Amino acid sequence: MKAEVVQETGNPTGHGRPEDWPKYIKDQDWSKYTSEEHDVWKTLFARQSKIVKGRACQEYLDGVAALEMDQNQIPNFNEASKILKAKTGWEVVAVEGLIPDLPFFQLLAERKFPAGDFIRKPDQLDYIQEPDVFHDFFGHVPLLANPVFADYMEAYGKGGLKACQHGTITNLARLYWYTVEFGLIKQDDGMRIYGAGILSSPGETKFAVESDSPNRIGFDLKRIMQTNYRVDDFQQSYFVIDSFDQLFKETYADFSKLYEEIKADKTEYAPEDIAEGDTVLTRGSQEYTQSKA
Ligand code: PHE
Ligand code: FE
Q: Is 255 in the pocket of ligand 1 (CB under 6 A)?
């Protein structure tokens, strides 16, 4: 899943039009899955649910329980949506793969989470190009049952439509990357994960909380929007929030002024950089990345 470029400007499908979202969604048609496909889910689910215990944040684990996921079968989006709708008003809709930015933002703004409905092949358990149902559902959907995170995701969608007008989708996409996909959260019992890109990857789940290699830096909105990210391997830096309330509060205000500042000062950080003013929780050795060079 390393190569998942979430709605970035490099998205080959372009920006699209917000109102075209219905063109990109489809019926999941749950009966189409073969028993081999359900078995892939079962293998991934069994392996990953062990690994996320003690590493995922409490809100995520609560969401997993609330969704009553069947470990033996690919989830049925309609059934999950009934549970989610009652809790936070969110639903899960099926898409073919990555969709253009603006329909994607519009879907989030309407509390519809677009999830790939296909599943990786048995020989791709650890690596896929495009987000499949395991990444999208196991990784993303549980937190949508949390009221604060649910509000954040809707606000992000609305913010995306605005960012397009400012020409800053790339900057906003970095916020998505370093929170929704690769976010860490400091909880009473230690460093925990809430990012879906981590939670759907066995290797990165351990790496993100236990390795000495990556930097762990306190959440800083502007800094994140100026930071490039890697799509080909484990992250070299993670940004850490104290709570979902903090995340929501720090992103709630209008970004217009911030966007103008960012466009004016043009600072860009590399994925491994430590910047002046960073709250460094752990300074990474970057040993992992160097060992691969
Ligand atoms: N407050 C942001 C804006 O004005 C919108 C936003 C909210 C973006 C939450 C991301 C997350 O553009
Ligand atoms: Fe994702």
A: yes
| Cβ-count burial 29-42 (b if 16+ within 10 Å, e if not) | eeeebeeebeebbb
User: What pLDDT sits at residue 8?
Assistant: 40
- Give the Å distances, CA to CA, from 81 to 48, 89, 124, 175: 22, 9, 28, 26
The answer to whether 40 touches 137, Cβ cutoff 8 Å, is no
Predicted local confidence at residue 128, as pLDDT = 83
Average pLDDT over the chain reads 94
Q: Is the CB of 221 under 6 A from ligand 1?
A: no
Distance CA 203, CA 178 (A): 18
Neighbours of ion ligand 2 (CB under 5 A): 131, 196
Strands (E), 48-175: 91-95, 112-116
Higher per-residue confidence, 2 vs 178:
178
Residue 15, Cβ neighbours under 10 Å: how many?
Answer: 17
Residue 91, helix vs strand vs coil:
strand
User: Which value, in Å, is the radius of gyration of the alpha carbons in the chain?
Assistant: 18
Half-sphere exposure of 169 (CA within 13 A, CB side): 22
**CA of 114, nearest ligand number:** 2
pLDDT tens digits for range 6-19: 444 445 556 999 99
Mean pLDDT of 14-30: 94
